[in-house]
Predict the structure of DUF2878 domain-containing protein.
Amino acid sequence: MGKGLLNGMIFNVSWLVLLLTHSNVVAPLLVIAHLALHRVLFLQQQREWLLIALITAGGLLLDQLIFAASILTVDDTRGWPPLWLGCLWPIFATTLNHVFKALQQHLLLASLLGAVGGTGSYIAGVGMTSVSFGTPIWSPLAIALIWAILMPLMCIAAGRLMAPEGSNDTAIA
């Protein structure tokens, strides 16, 4: 099995555990375990930690905005996103240079995958947790638009940050 496929499988297992438990106790422990496993199996450059931190920080901010705009709610009320939801960001960030690395050179495909895959993940999460869409039609469409823009931007960031020192190799051709 290729390392990219294994990286994707480990991400999906962690994602599923977070959604099934939606526990604010389990979530941080799972992030620690996931990142430790990522370090052992996949980490190639220390700069990847910076990428994970930046994606996590940006994702947490985005979650705040999504909940503030009532695109997503918890128990049908506007408020803060749950901790376990924020714990998805560092776990997702570990995929950008592995299972999703090829998308760094195919930004249109990254946009399409972001729109479809991102929205699909949110739809699944809404079905499994107390998080819900603010509106049944406009909220998933907003998520699709956000992820259609966000996924290629994250791929560009990953490609630029992880490019070898002194290289002109970036995610944009």
